[in-house]
Amino acid sequence: MRVVCVNTGDKYSQWYTDNLKHMIDNYSQLNYTSFEVIDQEEYGGVYDKLLMFDKFRDGQNIYFDLDVLIKGDCNQFMRNELTVCHAWWRKPYHTPLNSSIISWNGDYSHIYDKFKYNPDKYMLIYNLGIDQYLYELFQPLTYSNGFCSYQTIQEEQEYEVYLFNQRYEFMQQEGWWTKYFLDKH
Q1: Residue 7 lies in a domain
Q2: Which of 5, 50, 127, 170 is a good FRET partner for 182, with 20 to 30 A between their CA atoms?
Q3: Is residue 185 domain-resident?
């Protein structure tokens, strides 16, 4: 099994990548064989996440955004078919998907192949990001349990994963979540 993350550009420091690996190793209970970091910037922003479907065409894969808190068993997120989070907290004009956790087994390179054929077109049409791209073109399955968004639930509860959803700067502040993170010193 492969754990994947993406850290392109200068938005996230190395601490976020190291912190994700720390949480995977200490809390996730995932028995993985490789921890892969995509760090080549091809398209910029969230669209670089699509590179993982080109790079990892075999075996079991699980992807995590860098702005997540992992504090429990993540084996529940392992899926053969492409699966992402159900974003029940989003406004109706957006998509009901969130790609902070993605799992798949085998070759899903067709997702990247379609995008790379005309990236400018797809970034214009799917300007809400890859969540919209995946939702409208590929209809992935969704997780409904085991995670929550920090946007809606800010106190510590029994969720295994908290999605900070673009609130990565909160991760640098002291809070109940600090005990799960890699020491910043």
Answers
A1: yes
A2: 50
A3: no
Listing from the earlier edge strand, what are the strands of the sheet with 83-86?
Answer: 34-38, 2-6, 60-64, 97-105, 83-86, 141-143
118 domain-assigned? yes
Domain containing 103 — which CATH number? 3.90.550.10
The two three-digit tokens of residue 61, written as one number = 């894969």
Of 106, 85, 87, 83, nearest to 95 (Cα)? 87
Domain membership of residue 150 as a residue range: 2-180
Q: For residue range 55-91, what is the model confidence (pLDDT) as tens digits?
A: 999 999 999 999 999 999 999 999 999 999 999 888 8
Q: Do the domain assignments include residue 41?
A: yes
